[in-house]
Design a protein that fits this description.
single chain; mainly alpha; elongated; 0% strand
């Protein structure tokens, strides 16, 4: 005697397969789109410079926190960047340059943090919506919403 086999509805299976494929594709497209936002900013800098951003941020925070008590020793990396950028200087001139550079680094770090916060949040929100979707149209709507949010966010950064 053979055991009864479960009958699979081919239409339901095709719909489930389409939804699964649509979700996978949307997640990949979302990541590519969000990577595109950050790539535009990163493309303006050499890779070695980007890799130094954490160090720059740390040194800039030390300089800015020290205020009038700041010294060149607090930020040897940034002091060297100033030297390569601006050439010879007295210690007093270099300290002024260092403070200016630290302020710029802090502004850039804040801007990058805003981008990272947005990308992280919109990715998570969109992936939640994609996962919760029960129809391909809902998946596509979540992706469209994410792209619209990204466009609005980038426009706000650019003062538009």
């Amino acid at each position: 005697m053979t055991e009864p086999t479960e009958t699979i509805d081919p239409v339901a299976q095709a719909a489930a397969d389409l939804l699964s494929f649509t979700k996978q594709s949307a997640n990949k497209e979302l990541i590519l789109h969000l990577n595109g936002l950050t790539t535009n900013h990163l493309a303006a800098y050499p890779q070695a410079e980007v890799q130094s951003w954490d160090l720059q941020k740390s040194e800039a925070e030390a300089v800015m926190s020290a205020g009038e008590r700041a010294t060149l020793d607090l930020a040897p990396f940034l002091a060297a960047v100033c030297a390569y950028h601006l050439g010879e200087a007295t210690d007093a001139e270099r300290l002024t340059q260092l403070k200016q550079k630290a302020a710029i680094v802090q502004q850039n770090a804040t801007a990058w943090a805003l981008i990272a916060q947005f990308v992280n949040g919109v990715r998570a929100r969109t992936q939640d919506a994609i996962e919760a979707a029960s129809e391909p149209t809902e998946v596509n709507a979540a992706l469209i919403d994410a792209k619209a949010a990204a466009a609005a966010f980038m426009a706000s950064l650019n003062g538009e």
